[in-house]
Amino acid sequence: MSSFKKRVASNQPKLPPGTKLSSHNGQVLVSTGVSSLDDVLGGGLPVGSILLVLSDRKTNYSRVLTNYFVAQGLASSHHVHVASVEENIRPMLKRLPSWCPEVALANTKVPEPREIEAEQSPASSEKLKIAWRYQNLPTSSHTTTPAGPRSERSKGPVPFCENFDLMQPVNPEVLDQPNLTTSSLDSSVNDHYQALFSQLAGLVENGFSSLAPVPATGGRDRNIIRLAIHDMASPLWHSSSPESCFAFLHALRGLLRFSFATCMITVPAHLYQRGPQKSGFIRRMEHLCDAVVELESFAGSRGTKAMGDLPKYHGFFYVHKQPLLNSLVPSSTRLSAITGTQLSANNLAFKQKRHKFVIETFYLPPEGGVSERRVAPSKDGSQSSTSSVQNKPPQSLDF
Amino acid sequence: MGYRSLHSAFHFPQGRVFPGQCTFLITDALAADGSFLLHHFITSALQVGPSGTSSTEQLGTAMRRQLHLHSKPDSTSSASSAPGPDYQVILVGLAQIFNHYLLVARKLGVNLMTYREQNRFVFVDGLSRLASVSDSRTLVPGQANVPTTATTPSYVLPTFHHGDQSSQRYLDDLLREILSFLEQAQSSDSTQASSDKPSSPLTPCLIFDDISVLWNLGMDANAIVQFLLACKLAVESRDGALIILVHADTCLASQQQSTDRTTTDTNAFSKGYDYFIRSLQRLATIVLQTEPLTSGHSRDVHGQLSMLRGPQCYSKEFKSRVLHYKIYDNNAEFFAPGFSSAVL
């Protein structure tokens, strides 16, 4: 009789929707909405941590990341709180990317279970003819399932990272849900950091704190709260002393560590830049956060101006700090597919395609460019005589 | 016991974990986090002495194979446990919560909970309530409305109000609290030791994870250094060790504090962060400096550790040296530059 006992899934506490356990250190992770960013961070953002995004100059790609973060929270029915000083938040939220099951809100009709079975059966009966080793792999649900009968998914587990479409703005009905709250800090407040922290503390400690016992009433399960703070420490933020920004971050870390919450903060770091060296003010903030990434767009950077010609990418993506909770090495060293096995490989670039935002390894294009390698043979004989003379030397070099 | 290759690299007399009366200052940077060194000190301090023999047994062979730095380890350090007094570790966590240290120490083969029950490990929480804005929190560990669990810290630092509270007075209160922990260890040990053998009183090992948090929250640099000096004297009079971690990126040097209005100091001009770092260095016996490699990121070398003599170092044996390191899941390996196991 061995003491070995198989862990049954039902014995373990149920995970909140839209989360997963890290296979590296068993931490609860949530998705940032960008699957490649999740990968760079080692599977996702650990619950209880702060992600600091240093914004790009002249462009607004960090807003895209915030939008993804908020939309992912709405997609997995987390509580989402957006805070900003600068502008009215509602118009900003109208531009959130849409995701597939949002259609389910429109047609509330739940199909019969028989219907679902009938719909699933052709897919399951379809046998793979070649490459049997891939047969047992899960098929990517985002591409195969049609947009129509989506409500079946609302009963099943929520996907960890949704597939978003930047071209399609989100359904306005989603924004009226009670789990989306915003706080526009008005300029009359003496210290924005203090005001914001008391708001956040009130939100988080009301049902999302791990210090309070699990709410037993009504079978309410644990949920996640996501905090998105837009453009912190911009000139519009009032503070009673320069230290209140650091006090805010330190207190926020202490708050989040004991709660089911994650936070994404964007900071216009370039405002504090003086000379080529990194700003010390920003570095102090970086030390107080758990993960730090930086976006440097080619359009707004001086050093890489020439890179603007590259059609493939829109800028560099730097990872300055990996989330390092409860372990000695960040989990991305083992799990990340993009950065490989390096601690933080700073050879990443981002690009915003029409429909999605991706981060990938930066490669220089092949020498000579990829656009037009050969001169098209012209039909007109008289013109070709002059153009062939001009094009002769490069053609001889080109293999 | 901690990281074996670091232990043998220190090469302290009689194979001890710490030489008696020693202050370590760990200076790190964002690209080369130095907090992994703290876990070495926490775990190795708890595992020394007569009680350490059993716990080192359970360390697997993975821990033992890292001895290639000193190909000929002396007889004392090759023994299964390092000799030395029983340490009491007081950890002031200003950057992480207790769970973090607990889980990392478990990976390193030490269960902090058992040591906590023996009062040999004390955790002071400096994260939950320290910052001035955290007044608005209602649920803070250690408070009456929060159920006490096994991971509740022994003491939670009260809120520091920048501007209307003297940092000197705040740190005096903290010092009193730390001294009371030191005295508790002396007294409670005598009752515990009555079981089998008369043991010597516990030797303190006081650790501050990230003292720069205090500076960031606006505490006066002079007051912090005075506080640490008092800690150093208290600890070293009991033959113990003080370990301080501080961030020392080069770009931080020009950072200024807004002046503390309540200090009685007449020349209350704002001193930079480099002043703070340099005055900390004056306290140090040994400075451990972690830096990223100048040649950039590497898969097999995560950074460079410089072991430097501090101004308070009077030992003739200690030699400054530079090592490279690689951090694993449950260990860290230190080797001479160019002697990475991926190269050899």
From TrEMBL, chain A:
Keywords: Cytoplasm, Nucleus, tRNA processing
InterPro entries the record matches: Elongator_complex_protein_4, P-loop_NTPase
GO biological process, one term: tRNA wobble uridine modification
GO CC, alphabetical: cytoplasm; elongator holoenzyme complex; transcription elongation factor complex
Pathway: tRNA modification; 5-methoxycarbonylmethyl-2-thiouridine-tRNA biosynthesis
Biased composition (Polar residues): 380-399
Major location (coarse): cytoplasm
Region of interest: Disordered: 1-25, 368-399
Acetylation in keyword set: no
CDD domains recorded: Elp4
Domain of life: Eukaryota
Subcellular location: Cytoplasm; Nucleus
PANTHER family in the record: ELONGATOR COMPLEX PROTEIN 4, PAX6 NEIGHBOR PROTEIN PAXNEB
Annotated family: Belongs to the ELP4 family.
Protein name (database record): Elongator complex protein 4
Annotated source species: Dispira parvispora
The gene coding this protein: ELP4
From TrEMBL, chain B:
Pathway stated in the Swiss-Prot or TrEMBL entry: tRNA modification; 5-methoxycarbonylmethyl-2-thiouridine-tRNA biosynthesis
One annotated Gene Ontology cellular component of this protein: elongator holoenzyme complex
GO BP, sorted A to Z: tRNA wobble uridine modification
Domain of life, source organism: Eukaryota
PANTHER family named among the record's database cross-references: ELONGATOR COMPLEX PROTEIN 6 (PTHR16184:SF6)
Family: Belongs to the ELP6 family.
Name of the protein this chain belongs to: Elongator subunit elp6
Gene label: ELP6
